[in-house]
Amino acid sequence: MERVLILGATSAIAAEVAVRHAERGDRLHLVGRNPERLAAVAKRCASVAVTTAQADFSALSSADVVVDGAIAALGHVDRVLIAHGDLGDQLASERSIAEAEAILRTNLTSVVALLIPLANHMESRRGGRIGVITSVAGDRGRPRNYTYGAAKGALNIYLQGLRSRLYPSRVTVTTLKLGPVDSPMTRNHAKNALFAQPLPVARGIVTALDRGVAEAYVPAIWGAIMPLVECTPERIFQWLPFLSGR
To answer: Which of 16, 64, 163, 242 is least surrounded by Cβ atoms within 10 Å, i.e. has the fewest?
Structure first.
């Protein structure tokens, strides 16, 4: 039985991850912004001990309080999944520093604010698993979402450093590079065959953390696609509308 903390637990993917852990008999502490949705996720996990807390992750000064509350509720944290994020408005971020900063805060700074106390807690216990949802958008900047992609790309670099720092303490750090998922976050996006469903994505996340891998593309097909996207020369990239278009 593990003591599992899920931050951003009301997202479609994180909710499915929580249910998978409840099926294992793990103890859960779920944190999210919307109390009604948080209660609904907790109800799905009612077969095990579940505690919840409401939090606004954009309030950076509250990150220590959120983590301290989770540790108090669980006793200690064996495994954490940081799952919150938001695509934001790319076009608005090109005209407004406030929108650009909001995207960076949600997808980068607020995650780092949580990782600092979590990493210190797990390092002191000399063990644990940290999983952070990033995105394939962080592998290469594209006009359609480069502000969001920049936040996720910077987060990938941060996690690389954190992973090496925590290696001597036997704490694994898994970067979860997700492709597009058919979920409320992408409700305004046209769907295609590459959009995954939350349940199989959740299963992939749990498996990646179980294995303690450094990075995992979820679904795995993105592990074949993104190296091609990354290695495409800039001039060719810009000629291909499916890569460089809006």
So the answer is: 242
- Here the tokens at position 125 are 């216990």
User: Any idea what the CATH number is for the domain that residue 226 is in?
Assistant: 3.40.50.720
Q: Are 246 and 144 in contact (CB under 8 A)?
A: yes
Phi, psi of 139, deg, nearest 5: -85, -25
Residues in the chain: 246
Structural domain range at position 135: 3-244
Residue by residue, pLDDT tens for the chain (246 residues) are: 999 999 999 999 999 999 999 999 999 999 999 999 999 999 999 999 999 999 999 999 999 999 999 999 999 999 999 999 999 999 999 999 999 999 999 999 999 999 999 999 999 999 999 999 999 999 999 999 999 999 999 999 999 999 999 999 999 999 999 999 887 766 666 656 778 899 999 999 999 999 999 999 999 999 999 999 999 998 988 888 877 778
Six token digits for residue 186: 């992408």
- Region of 25 on the Ramachandran plot (φ > 0 left; ψ -120 to 50 alpha; else beta): left
Interacting residues of 36 by C-beta distance below 8 A, sequence separation 6+: none
Tell me which residue has tokens 């009301």: 10
Long-range pairs of 214-219 with CB within 8 A, sequence gap ≥ 24: 214/163, 214/173, 214/174, 214/175, 215/174, 215/175, 215/176, 215/177, 216/174, 216/175, 216/176, 216/177, 217/136, 217/177, 217/178, 217/179, 218/176, 218/177, 218/178, 218/179, 219/179
